[in-house]
Amino acid sequence: MPVSPAxxxxxxxxxxxxxxxxxxxxxxxxxxxxxxxxxxxxKAAALTRTGQTxxxxxxxxxxxxxxxxxxxxGLKDDKFFTEPWVVHSPQDDVLLLGVCxxxxxxxxxxxxxxxxxxxxxxxxxxxxxxxLNHVNWGSIALVPRGDDGERFVVAAIGHTETSGQYELxxxxxxxxxxxxxxxxxxxSSPAPTVAMIxxxxxxxxxxxxxxxxxLWNGIIVCDVLSEDPSLRFIPLPKLLPSNNAHYGQRFxxxxxxxxxxxxxxxxxxxxxxxxxxxxxxxxDVSDAEVLYDSEFRFGAEEEEYxxxxxxxxxxxxxxxxxxxxxxxxxxxxxxxxxxxxPSHGVxxxxxxxxxxxxxxxxxxxxxxxxxxxxxxxxxxxxxEDTKAWVVAVNMANKTVEALAPxxxxxxxxxxxxxxxxxxxxxxxxxxx
Length: 432
Description:
- The protein is built from three helices and 27 strands.
- Helices cover 4% and strands 41% of the residues.
- The longest helix has 6 residues, at 342-347.
């Protein structure tokens, strides 16, 4: 996908002081970079494979959507094939980033960014030996290995032409070599067909285990640090009724998401825009006393129908990795959400108008990595709006906890948003 014109200038970080709650231990980070120079104390630089200097920085502003910037001094903007992106955020202070230049023949440079008082950016030499063209970019994991934080494994999984069989790609930073293994999905797992499981998210489950998440279907769990890795499958909860119409479409994170909350607990969140089909019956001609020629229609008449909007709702589920079942957490209907802070109505009037709130374009749900009950939604008045809002809903007490505007210009052009909850914030030195 080519670089969006909106990616060459950064949006202004909003003033979120009004109605703001205490700073969370994470940020909502847009996974696609802005190709521009905006430096602060988070800035770190490295060399690409061709010797080009590349710098990365992270302006942040929780609870809204934060972003990061990538800049290559002296390099023309059109040399980027697509926006650099966050491949994976495995732990508090580390990110795996991908950069693709037009001169690379669609190959990717991968960098490890480490936050802290003196942030660093490291080119991952040799990672191109892994055949990443077999997998979705969203299903690549960076797995720390060892206690010093320097050694890591990059893991990815892709399906084969044989049902239930997958290829596991592994790159070990020490000694810088890669391997490919063909694995069978454990027979004790539900047996999805090869066409069904296409991971588009990854989550670190601890003790070397990685969850490769297909948000439409389920999670393939693999201990990628094991000498003898195996695969098992955890199905996700069934979709809410209206979301079945979207099954298999691109960007499933419009509707649902998954987070690992620690202590073996996985959480799933889903947003559904409910609607009801209203059938308009064929008029009974026997009720008429006179039939005019102007009312004649060729062919048989068919029932017509429209859809009635019933608003939207949010549901959460949770389970232990070792469990065989999901347990419902909270179910909140849009009409039940309380807006108790008066400043929220000033900032976002549609949020406090019951009818307008029901019509909001709400989606892209995210739960924090802290395992709390707050769900973060993106809300727009109209799909094409270039301004959007992050609305933090406490599912336990059905209350809006926080509200922050952000620029959605790129989503209006390309039709998607992609952000993650990332604990990198607490390790960033954001002073100028």
